[in-house]
Amino acid sequence: MSGIAHHLVKRGLDATHEQYRSGSFAQDAGDKKPFGHPHAVAAALVITGVAWFFAANAISYIYGGVVATLTMIETPTATAFRVDPAAEPEEADAPLLSADEKKSNTIPELELFYVKTKPITSKIRTTIKHLKAEAGPWSRFRGLQVALVYHFVHHMLFQLLTALFGGALISQSFAAVFAAVILCRLQMLWTHVVISTPSEKKWYRRFPTLDQGKKILLPTAVWALAEQAAICIPITLFQVFDLEGYFANPSGFKDLPEMQQKSVALASFAVLASGLLTAVLVVFPANVALKRVQASLLSEENDTIVPFDRTFGGKVQPELVGGKGVVSMLDAWKTFDWAARFRLVKLYAKIAAIQLSTSVFFVMLAVAEVRMINGDYILY
Questions:
Q1: What letter does residue 375 receive in the DSSP assignment?
Q2: How does the average pLDDT of the chain come out, rounded?
Q3: CA–CA separation, 240 vs 244, rounded Å?
Q4: Is residue 168 over pLDDT 60?
Q5: What is the SS3 assignment for 248?
Q6: How confident is the model at residue 375 (pLDDT cuts 50, 70, 90)?
Q7: Would the N or C end of the chain have less CB density within 10 A of its end CB?
Q8: Which stretches of 62-106 are DSSP H helices?
Q9: CA-CA-CA-CA torsion for 293, 294, 299, 301, nearest 10 degrees?
Q10: What one-character-per-residue DSSP string does 286-335 give?
Q11: Residue ranges in 183-255 assigned as alpha helix (H)
């Protein structure tokens, strides 16, 4: 979403510069008037674009990062309720029984009922409220320092590797996967900081060990390959169907024969569908499994900020008793039940709606700013 914001703001600034250079602002096709306040418009668009950039990234980090990760690892707890059956009335011959017999006959059988509590992450509002209560008002940005370091180092590694191996699509995919695998411990550190209760240790003193890093090499590689597949498959189909010319010159689409228009539309739909299906069927499970594998390696001295079953239903045994101490990717996904999957999908739908409404707001704000600064002038 931040990329879209950058693109729209850049287009607005380019258009502003072009109109300023040509010195024209029109109210209608036959009435040319000088451009009103080009510098004021440019300043307003830049400020609005920067605000949009930070708002979109804050939404993405808080809801798509912190809240989504807590949703992936939370295990709803169950509360036991004891129900005492009503005492049966004494029989007519009860006085004839001894005291011990009466006692043995009147002991009721207890019944236990287990009721699952509602997950904390069932709603965004309850999750944020819980974070504030447990870790303070800035807890929604927990792990931000680690995230900034990770993305900066990942970007530098990616740029270095693409410079070495070239800028082809396959080279870029390899560079992205390799950088993610190299930084797997740093990524796991972010997950541990997000899901654990506040610690007195600084984040850089909580680095996972090399042995823990080895255990997540494969899950990290699978997740990174899944993400690259979601990018490369649509791009490859876009090139195979030779759609670049149609998107570069959309006006020429109307001049095509009807059969060719349908073919282009069908090919475009196939490109979009391939990316969406790959994201849902491949990236989504890989991301959930990776986060849960990382969470299984959280140190015993750290408590989680939401309820979390470290045994994953008995599938994980501590190393002290001869177990591996880590859940497999397959078990991590299987123990993430359908209720939790639906909860996470619903969260992503809410995030998309929030991002869309935020984008609409800032676009309308930018248009209103231009109109307020330049009156009734219309930018062409």
A1: T
A2: 84
A3: 10
A4: yes
A5: helix
A6: low
A7: C
A8: 68-73, 99-105
A9: -100
A10: HHHHHHHHHHHTS-TTS-BSS---TTTTTT---GGGT--SS--HHHHHHT
A11: 184-195, 210-215, 217-240, 244-248
